[in-house]
Write a structure and sequence with these properties.
- It is a single chain.
- The chain has helices spanning 12-22, 31-39, 52-65, 80-85, 100-107, 145-153, 170-182; strands spanning 69-74, 90-97, 114-118, 130-136, 156-167, 183-193, 196-205.
- With 209 residues, it is α/β, with parallel strands linked by helices.
- The chain has one domain (12-205): Vaccinia Virus protein VP39 (Rossmann fold, 3-Layer(aba) Sandwich), CATH 3.40.50.150.
- The protein has a 7-stranded mixed β-sheet with strand order 3-2-1-4-5-7-6, sandwiched between helices.
- It starts with 11 loop residues before the first helix and ends with a strand.
Length: 209
């Protein structure tokens, strides 16, 4: 994927078109490219009004399903989800991202129960289990998203849940359908805003008989 180098915020329609063209192919964005994007302010739109409804669903799932949860945020970016949750919503919060720039900005918040780590999700091994693992617009950037989802489900407590938000495109629809075949769908919400739509899903691991 070749990311833009300008300073204007990333346009979500451009992302949607790009992901739609990918279809079944994987995506690899090197950490240095993500650093340039964050340095250039390309993801500032995630703080905007268009994203509020989607974040509200994720926050509602976290607060309603697992109050005071231990949460792992995979691909946390600059820590927007943690700020929207509020410290009262979790007992422990770990955010990981490959971008050093994003993690530095997330860490500047200095909330006592939150930790932010520079890490590759496909290699990261946490030091504890979690009640919730959140993939907030991050799962579809992996070459093997189902493998990543299964890997992180192994870091959940026995009754833990995955919370997955994905912009609706051809590629993400394929990913979501595969996830729904391999995990139990606890709940699913479709969110629309400014001509875009997302699907936010709560998934549980299937237990062997």
């Amino acid at each position: 994927m070749r990311l833009s180098s300008g300073v204007a915020p990333m346009d979500m329609t451009s992302i949607q078109r790009f992901l739609g063209r990918l279809r079944g192919r994987g995506v690899h964005v090197p950490p240095q490219a993500w650093d340039r994007e964050y340095d250039g302010g390309r993801w500032e739109h995630l703080e905007g009004l268009r994203e509020i409804s989607r974040y509200s669903v994720i926050v509602g799932y976290c607060r309603g399903l697992k109050p005071e949860a231990a949460i792992l945020d995979v691909g946390c970016g600059e820590g927007i989800l943690r700020r929207r949750l509020g410290a009262e919503s979790y007992s422990d919060y770990v955010g990981i991202d490959v971008s050093q720039v994003a993690i530095a900005r997330a860490s500047a918040d200095r909330e006592g129960r939150a930790r932010f780590l520079v890490a590759n999700a496909e290699e990261f091994v946490p030091d504890r289990r979690f009640d919730l693992v959140v993939f907030n617009e991050s799962l579809y950037y992996h070459n093997r998203p189902l493998e990543v989802a299964h890997r992180f489900s192994g870091f959940l407590e026995p009754d833990g849940l995955l919370v997955v938000s994905m912009l609706n495109t051809i590629r993400t629809t394929v990913i979501r359908r595969k996830l729904e075949r391999e995990f139990v769908v606890v709940h699913r919400t479709r969110v629309r805003s400014d001509g875009l739509s997302w699907t936010c899903s709560v998934l549980a691991a299937r237990r062997s008989a």
